[in-house]
Write the structure tokens for this entry.
Amino acid sequence: MPHSTAPDPMSAGDSQTMSETTIKPEPSTQDVAMEDAPSPAGDNKAKVELEELFDDNDSDQEFPSSVPAKSEEDLSQPTTFKISDTSTFSDPDVMRAFYQRLFPFRHFFQWLNHSAVPGPDFAHREFAFTLANGALLRYQSFPTADVFRKHCIKEVPPRFDIGPVYSTNPRDRKSLRKASAFRATSRELVFDIDMNDYDEIRTCCTGAKVCHKCWTFITMAIKVVDTALREDFSFKHILWVYSGRRGAHAWVSDKKAREMDDNRRRSLAGYLELVRGGDQGSKRVSIRRPLHPHLERSLNILKEHFQTTILAEQDPWAEKSEHLLNLIPDATLRAALQKKWDSSPSRPSASKWADIDSVAKSGALSKTSRELLEAKQDIVLEYTYPRLDADVSKKLNHLLKSPFVVHPATGRVCVPIDPKRVEEFDPLGVPTVTELLKEIDEWEGEEDEKKVHDWEKTSLKPYIDYYKTFVSGLLRDEKEQMSVKREREEQHGDAMDF
Amino acid sequence: MIRHDYSRVDPKRRANIDHKKKQFAKAEFAQQHYDHRLNFYTLPPTAEITLEEFETWAINRLKVLSELEACSFRNKSPEETAEYMTSILNKYLPLRSNTSRSQALQEERKKDHYSHYILRLAFSSTEDLRRRFSRLETMLFRLRYKEDDFKEREQFVKSLNLEWEEVGEAEKRELRDQLLAATGGKKSAAGEEQEWCKVDWERVPELVEQRRVFLRRGKAYVPQSQQMSLVVAEFTKWLDDALELTARALPRLDEDDRLAPILAHLSQSFTAPEAAYTSSDASIDGLSAIHANAIDSLSENFPLCMRNLHMNLRANSHLKHYGRLQYTLFLKGIGLSLEECIVFWRRSFKLMTDDKFQKEYRYNIRHVYGDVGGDANRRGRGYTPYSCQKILTEPLPGPGQSHGCPYRTFTPENLSALLQRVGVQDRNVLKTVREDVQKQRYHVACNRVFEYGHQREIKKVRDEGSWSATDLDTIVHPNTYFKRSWLLKHLGEGNAGMVGDDEKMEE
């Protein structure tokens, strides 16, 4: 079935257009009007639309169903836009259909707004749009999900990034009397893990490429960072997102995390960062003993991966063992190993790794076995510990690509990753826009009483379902905190003496 | 007052109630008695002092602070700083412990207290000054805290009433291994007696960053031995807030034309550090406008940090972001124009398509030059070239990055190899450089290499007396390195005499 490409192609009788026109009043007053005042136009009608607005499950106007439009469009424009094998994801029509039918604007809005009622958390949030010609349009902001959605459908940005919440509306930043009144006040704590940083230790791919083998690096990184954030810092609402090509992002949405200043962000990033030093430094990893509990725990998580992912799959020392030799602190042992490996240079990494212990046992160790163990731990960490792009995490106002955006180069949707099932995540199995749109077309189900959202017909469904759960968990917590705060304020109001 | 910081009163209201209560209930601080040597400076002074005292006390404290700043610029270790500062502190701002039973005890503390507040007035006007003042005052506090008598320190900390939750015996036993592992303590009997307290991790960011505390569920477990970090963090936070308030109250001081000139004078004499880049570094007589293709030959005169970047750029036809930033700024500093700079990078990234370069790199170069970007950036003509201090205090380069100071980021072996590649063959020089680097005296090592590379020329200008001593002062800026190196290598080309004039203009 054809996708509608224009923002509002439907006839006046259509229920969608109806509701859209009625709830369309000026954004700034919209929430107020809906909140308490019954609409003067007609109570019944307004009520229905209110429910529609706030109800999560049924009749979601943001995710139009294809059913009501079907007959009409088939008649009027039978072959306007049909996904075919030749359509590509960079086609504006494809992107428009994506924003119209698949992007979860409502949950996206609630995620950033932290409540169902439009507030400054969303309205003062910066969005930066990458235009088709590559230019970056910064400081865009939108009062509600609806306005945001319309903008996306109209402009069809190939991608957009999310910035911080500012003290005032970013669009007004130039009309302020004092420039200092415009500053970033909050944003999620974010992390960026990029396959690029693993280039020197991965052997399967380089640069922008990624395969199942090296994706395991990201899996390991997610496990370690996620555990640390939850256990050590007690953050709860951590959204992991596939970056569309060869990495992953994390968005920590807890209120406490959002309100951290740069200083705190820097120290938190420093806590998690381990692999440092440029190409000319010696060891990338040098840590104190005893191991900090965080590292001890990470090492336990990473140990098994080292056996499978590094030694067996990546096999980094098969032909070139200098780097491994350099990491061994003991000169005599190093010489003995060098001799052994020179005679059989193509020995697999697993055997070489085992050689270290066996040669050491045979008497070529001049240092204590403790030191050797520590050196080996360092090597394990160097090859497995997450390599964060720490600069991203350190700044409150860093822009980061939004979840559910389509990666411009691969066409894959930046879908959330459930950290509990991170092992199952397959980056190459993530659907591309064109696949998704095709799935809508091919969907054959009953659509009688209950409307089926377009995304429910596609393989995007599990991801949006997960995202929904995530967002509602966040909203629930947010609400609790608000009520606790209010109570506290009331108590103090009584106790106040003047 | 500190205690209220953590109570749950709304901050806006709190300031009012407390302030009034304190101010009108009882003027308890009119004549303050100083129980402790250390001071959090929470109560402003109210007693009268003479105008002369006002000025001299402030100048004395300023002297101490600027010496402290100099120590940090010279990369002195905490021990060296403490040693160096002892005599200065004794001279300008002595502060004895209770046990000394000195007559002047209260006098000294009063001076310390008052001078702090005077400087607060002088240095609260701009964000820049505030940040610097708070950093230096924190350093001073830390210094004093460290050398304070153990018992008195404990009393002082107690008097602050910081809300710390003690870790109970049961919890201590349960977490014993982790606690010890986190702090790097040994499992000895002494470790058992250690007291721990639990605070929100946000209150000890530096300990968290260095992974020196155990974290669980958002709480940091701080051992008593690390309390300093907590107290110091508290001090900084308190001071920053207070400075902010002072800045807002400052305009009301305007009516006072006795104090205003003194304060203005104080803040002026506290101007930027000596390592600042001046535009005269860019104008070198005898060196005509630099073109992109001249960089290769000029790189002979570059300091090691820039040469390393240049060699990396040539080897990989690429540099990562911070490397590009550091190098572009340096090139801007030696007088490469924006157009030529873009040409230089375009040619250097020879493996890259034009389109990619235009999209992803050109803007950054223009931004550095102040050609694009916000109003402030353009008006300030972009960023200033990095000084050694800036380069030395930046985070270490990560994998694939090559910015920073090689004397700091390279291992001694790799550093020696690099130096030999650029022509430093002398065993003695390499050996002393290695010693310098081990003592973290990176700039000393760099200057040593400079002197080795220019020994003949330096001897010549010394003998001729054509360069003054200040012209041969320690180099603390990569652009100064280049300028001096170029001039020395081109002696006798009609420029040797010009240097002195230039340098004087800088001061």
Observations:
- Chain A touches chain B at residues 134, 197, 199-200, 231-234, 256, 260, 263-264, 266-268, 270-271, 275-282, 284, 288-296, 387, 390, 488-489, 492, 496-498 (CB under 8 Å).
- Confidence is low (pLDDT under 50) at residues 1-80 of chain A.
- DSSP finds 19 helices and nine strands in chain A.
- Strands of chain A lie at 125-130, 136-140, 159-166, 184-186, 189-194, 238-242, 247-252, 400-401, 416-417.
